[in-house]
Write a structure and sequence with these properties.
five-stranded mixed β-sheet, alpha/beta, Nucleotidyltransferase, domain 5, homodimer, 3 domains
């Protein structure tokens, strides 16, 4: 029931709605004059002037040149101020932590990353995060940074700001991320699941800017996804939405890290591809062989590698068909470290999607690769900060 | 991005939000005085008086007794006026069309139904719908009826108001339902998918009144579902959300009416249960044997019936586990004609849900039977009318 539940109609709300409308118009366009804003919003000149004055005060917008004059005084163009509004995006994955300084239009100004390993202590991971944030923010005035957004693997407690656990980083447990980072940097800290922030990245800066219903599929060491329904990033009843890595694709399948068996992650994740290749080809000693290496071998004609990767693709496609039949998205965006693996994985995946999806939901459906690539995570994480500036909290 | 996209902040919007707040408070409570309304909404007395005056004019509310006096003049209590606000709910299924007159609190005042058969012409089905609406509305003054809501099987064109097709009613094709009914009855006509209206029924009148994320599973002749995410009934990109009947549960399974094979409907629907029992027991002549008969036989110890129903339950549970892993709902409500079939179907279903769902999403998850029973469809359909009175259209 979509009535605005937690608020009443008030002048404050009215003003907030109109301010956001203007702010978003300025974000979606390069620059707009006051007169154009008035025409676009149907707000009177005085209201526009008042709102614009406040946005100037908040240092969120700036003047940027003039409209060509059509007789009288040329009108000044307004623009989002990118030179003094930055967000820090942090993306913690199973193998890397990445950090970037991002401006308000989603340009990455600086980015760096560190590897993390399976057995790394939480203290060591936190140290790396702090080191990267310091490195990224070295050249930016503190007062220009609007906040830190972070993508977290596994389970987290949104209220307390605690990262509870991450299946692929076993020592990363009960880490009070929000307190640690906000104490250290004295900035607002926001977070979200690491696959969901990638979906958010697509929504703010990628292929899904005006798409109401889409899925971001994150194929990497593990498999996750972000779900956007009706233009809202969903989180589910207990913050566990999108656990597609644990969809059963084989009823009598291999045991999974989650305690169950036959999960998608046991056949289609980077972890599974590498493990299965090592097992079948007797290369168990090669502990550093990764899924990417297996893909390379598949491309150079290694039959075992090809078979394993193709099987992985098929099951990925089956799981995607379940999502399509259940959710009827406009677009499935394929991202994550393995999304650039090309046809050897993606062709069998797409074939399986065709074969197993309900035809009515396939009509018009697009399966596309993420254009944001490795930046999807940090961009989406930085958008967590922007949401608090550009969206209505009701 | 949740900014109110299609509207600007205005006095009109402010007033609409406050009016809806009051209207919904009166719907959620039996009666409230003006003073209490003012306290609950923090709106001043004058605003309350103005809004209440308009609601009286619209005949939506009435006075209902007095508060006990604590000294001064006792205050009048206000209430939703149920005696002059009615909605007609129509539920078109594969085997029946049902129609009800429903008051604003979800009481069914009159209900009736007709059977429809697989080969019935669309003209005949439309005749039955009109007959039922006339019968249901016989004792209600026309001016008290707020509209007609309808649950439709299969595909429909929301904009044009046309029911495009229904797999289980092959002759029901391209029916301009909205025009036919609004011309005939001169009332606003709303519609929605027949499983989704059942979810809406649960949301307005059933077990899911304050539940943000839930699934309504409609097990009957076919299998459908309604999905509520973040308190919104979802419809998907091409209005095909919730096609769980066509989730692949057997990769090399039986052919399905949708043109594919191995779909959930080929093993777990009422249609499939009846067909499979007839096949295995050599009773193909018994064309009128239904899934309910098979269930009765299962309860009386018929081993073949038991095996078939148990298998159906298992695959239902597998499909539900996919939904749980993808969507992480609070509650799965099981409804539809077969939902009252008891343990012989539901026990294996629940066992499979336990076995195949991600443990993090099972925590706190409830699987419950719909309390609305056979009324879920007509109640949900009637709520389609109420949405236009009680919700903000943005």
């Amino acid at each position: 029931m979509n009535i605005i539940k937690n608020t009443m109609g008030s002048h404050r709300l009215m003003n907030r709605i109109n301010t956001l409308k203007i702010l978003n118009l300025l974000r979606e366009n390069i620059s707009i004059s006051r007169i154009e804003l008035s025409r676009m919003t149907k707000l009177d000149a005085k209201t526009i002037t008042n709102i614009v004055r406040v946005l100037f005060k908040q240092d969120l917008i700036e003047e940027k040149g003039f409209n060509e004059s059509s007789g009288g005084r040329p009108s000044e163009k307004l623009s989002i101020k990118t030179s003094s509004n930055f967000c820090i995006g942090v993306d913690l994955g199973a193998t890397h932590v990445t950090c970037a300084m991002v401006d308000m239009r989603g340009s990455v100004l600086y980015k760096d990353e560190c590897e993390v390993s399976l057995n790394e202590s939480k203290e060591s991971v936190i140290k790396k995060i702090i080191f990267l944030i310091e490195k990224c923010s070295r050249n930016t005035k503190k007062k220009y940074i609007r906040g830190i957004g972070m993508g977290l693997p596994g389970l987290f407690d949104r209220k307390k700001g605690v990262s509870v656990h991450a299946a692929n980083l076993p020592k990363w447990k009960n880490v009070p991320v929000r307190n640690i980072l906000s104490n250290k940097f004295d900035l607002p800290v926001y977070f979200e699941d690491c696959s969901r922030v990638m979906a958010l990245g697509e929504m703010w800066y990628g292929k899904c800017k005006n798409i109401k219903d889409f899925i971001f599929l994150d194929i990497g060491y593990g498999i996750g996804c972000g779900i956007v329904n009706n233009s809202e990033l969903q989180s589910g009843a207990t913050n566990s939405i999108g656990e597609i890595g644990h969809i059963k694709v084989e009823l009598n399948g291999k045991p999974c890290g989650c305690g169950s068996s036959g999960c998608l992650e046991t056949v289609s994740s980077g972890m599974a591809i590498a493990r299965e290749y090592k097992r079948r080809s007797g290369l168990n000693g090669l502990s550093r062989l990764t899924a990417k290496d297996v893909l390379t071998r598949a491309y150079s004609g290694d039959a075992t590698a090809k078979r394993i990767v193709s099987e992985s693709g098929k099951y990925l496609g089956l799981a995607i068909s379940h999502i399509i039949n259940i959710l009827n998205p406009d677009i499935v965006v394929v991202g994550g470290k393995l999304s650039k693996s090309g046809s050897v994985l993606l062709k069998p995946m797409k074939d399986a999607v065709e074969k197993y999806s309900y035809s009515g939901s396939l009509k018009g459906l697009k399966i596309v690769n993420s254009e944001l690539g490795d930046d999807a995570g940090v961009l989406g994480a930085s958008a967590l900060v922007l949401r608090n500036i550009f969206e209505l909290e009701v």
